[in-house]
Amino acid sequence: NYEFTGLAPGEYKITADFRGHTVELGSYTGTSALKAKQDITIAGAHGKTTTSAMIVHMLSYCGLKVVPIVGGNLKINHKLCLKDVDYVIAEADESDGSFIKYKSTHAVVTNMDHDHPDFYTSHAKTKEYFKLFIKNISSHGSLVYNGACPHIDPLIKDIAINKHAFGLTPKSQLTYTELDYCSSTNMNFDIHHRNK
Hints:
This protein is an alpha/beta fold and 196 residues long. The protein contains 4 helices and 11 strands; from the N terminus they run E-E-E-H-E-H-E-E-E-H-E-H-E-E-E.
């Protein structure tokens, strides 16, 4: 097991459990590391860790080398690789506004609520910061966002990047079918892009 621990906004310490001992593997500033990698950042008031875990699992399953920077324990079988990395998957924590420092290749916005009122004194400020986060996505990248969240569409209408809504709304390009709850912690479903 290994863990990425936030030291300060955008800074991480990498540690690993090795034969019962915690070993520090190093630390780095997430934003500078992400500039050199193909990355996917996940932002939103809810669902960042779950979404990050699903993306890490899918890309790893496809044989890609993935480094997750996630605030929770993913509890998935993933081998840590820090060389020749294909993707960095990072939770973009919006709680203190530092997520606007990320220069993402691709991003996922799960939803947007007026959360963390100690930093975001109004819903307008929340929207402003999410728009800045989205504007920092590479022009060659893409945004995947919750099509059911009414706050996102107005923010992205004038931003020229590839956009893909997910969910069950009519505008959603990414949808799911055959949802099967196998257990309280396991479900199966089929994902479709533009009904394919």
